[in-house]
Amino acid sequence: MKTTEELKNIVKDQYAKIALQDKEDNAASCCGATPTSNKVYNIMMEDYSQIEGYNADADLGLGCGLPTQFAKIKKGDTVIDLGSGAGNDAFVARHETGEAGKVLGIDFTETMINKARINADKMGYNNVEFRFGDIDNMPVGDNAADVIVSNCVLNLVPDKTKVISEIYRVLKPGGHFSISDIVLVGDLPDALRQDAEMYAGCVAGAIQKDEYLQKIEDQGFSNITLQKEKVISLPDDILIKYLNSEELESIKSRDTGIFSVTVYAEKPDSETEDQLTELTTSEEAPCCEPNSTSCC
Prior knowledge:
Layout lengths: L3 H15 L4 H5 L39 H4 L7 E5 L5 H10 L4 E6 L2 H14 L4 E5 L12 E7 L8 H11 E15 L4 H5 L1 H5 L8 H11 L2 E11 L3 H4 L5 H8 L4 E10 L3 H15 L12
Parallel strand pairs: 1-2, 1-4, 2-3, 4-5
Antiparallel strand pairs: 5-7, 6-7
């Protein structure tokens, strides 16, 4: 069993290489991380080419959704993109927030940060910043963002609870997120889950969908909504390396499945949080004794 730091280093190494490849090479692998059958091409990634703000130089073909499409970004918003890569989602978010807003991309791969900064300079964007750092320990102050987006990144982080906690900390009260990610239904066979390259390839690091949504709820987010869900079907020549015939049949019958989801949730505003606190306090310590004739 690999440690958290070992898993992080695997992802860093793989994505440093990906930053130097073109989109076609990256898209021909599972989330861009492993050299596999060309049948995997376009299985996870979505087509950004018709979305306003899209920049082809920033699209490495690594995503599994279109979170900015669902993120309800308004003009003037401050948006943070977690695992920003070469800047694809950050630039789409910048189109939505406009010149009056601000977009901050965070990534822990320096090669990606450098590539994103070059892309931003080419387009002359002075309100888009890319910052080196871990998304489970963001280099950002409390209550900084109106909106957080992320595209196929949380599944790569070993401690997802910590990332969700950081998202809550960094969002302003009343702010929200829209995150695309890979989740599971049913248990993946051990061989698939333990493979380091498949971890960097977005599958082995994924957790159960119910557990994923529960972690968000446990952190205190409200209005949790599944905005989009689709099945990810890996081709047989990939799966056969990890699965026996029975396990392969289970995957095909959807008893066990890999899914791309886009999840939306809101951080309660200050007034709502105060009301919840008062309600909890009232329930735990009522101000009146049961037989009292007056109330405090």
